[in-house]
Fold:
Amino acid sequence: MARHAHSSFLLTAPIASVRHYSGEHAAHAHDHAQILYALEGRMELEVNGRAAFVDAACGMVVPAGVEHGFLASPGARLLVIDAPHDRGGVDKVRRFAVPAALREKPLALSGDDAGRHLSELLCAPRVLARRDLDLSHVREQIIRQLHENWNTRRMAALVHLSAQRFHLRWLELTGKTPQQWLREQRLDAAARALARGEPLETTALRCGYKSASALAFALRRDRQVGARDLRRGSRRAA
Structure:
């Protein structure tokens, strides 16, 4: 891991940016404070020699002058706010719960909006260390085997959590329960397959439904669309 001092500049107001990562790692310190959390993926951190991480539900304040190393997961997107070191509330390392309202509304990065966003984050409640949950690992395993029985307990076992703890963390990170998310993945996969002209029965079994009628019912209930409509739409697009 490379260690270096971050290039210094005089910061007089908060500056927000969305930063994209592809698996890189480094260590450095800033002349300003940083407040960060993940919009997608996660980032492992070492702050003052202590291991931590940020994700979509848990962010961190890194004060000016504090050396921190990071390792970003490939494809990660983080919101980073650089803040003047004399701004109140940024003088101590602190983990905070990302307010759900901030995750649900569009992100604006102009000067005034950055200041308001920062104020909301600094007022967010402090949190203790969360149990880690690698969303990408769970997603990959399930998507590859959609036809299998994925109850919450089995999902949780992929990341060595209890079913209850996994349920709470998944809901916190995605805004959906594990089974709501799984249902959406199955319906998305089924809709794509049917649009390619695959048979309803084959698609149903491959996507985790017991029968063609069970899949047809789920499509109408949750998507208000039928298998014939999906095929017809695909033929029109072609």
Q: What stands out?
A: The radius of gyration is 22 Å.
